[in-house]
Amino acid sequence: MIIMIAAVAENNTLGKNNELVWHLPNDFKRFKSLTTNHHIIMGRKTFESFPKPLPNRTHIIITRQTDYNPEGCIVVDSMEKAIAACPENEDSYIIGGGEIYNLGLPYADIIEITKVHHTFEGDAFFPKISKSEWQLVESEENFKDEKHLYDYTYETYIRK
Question: What is the pTM of this model?
Fold first, then answer.
């Protein structure tokens, strides 16, 4: 299955200047537990926002740059080629950024969202989830605490 995974503000902001604009340690742990040992599809800018490749995951990077070839990664020039590079009978994750989510939405079977209950200024946004195409099947509220400045909810959507 193709699964899109993202942390999204109330106004669909993903980030600004190629960085997250919030810090939710439990969301990082959830992201790691869901994506470890899977293929992850991302854009070049998202890949370059990491200090190093994420361990125990196969990185598929979509870019228009023909000479881009980071060690140990699969580099392609389209979402179709990225999906074709994923194992057929395994879960693969689309992890961003904004343009990649827009390209990936038609291929997604599931969307895993961490909804951050706040609005932020940003320059990258998650596509609007159409209630006519997607059904919310799971929702888990989490409340701000000493490590989390904002309330947030894990939401799982499946395509209708």
Answer: 0.96
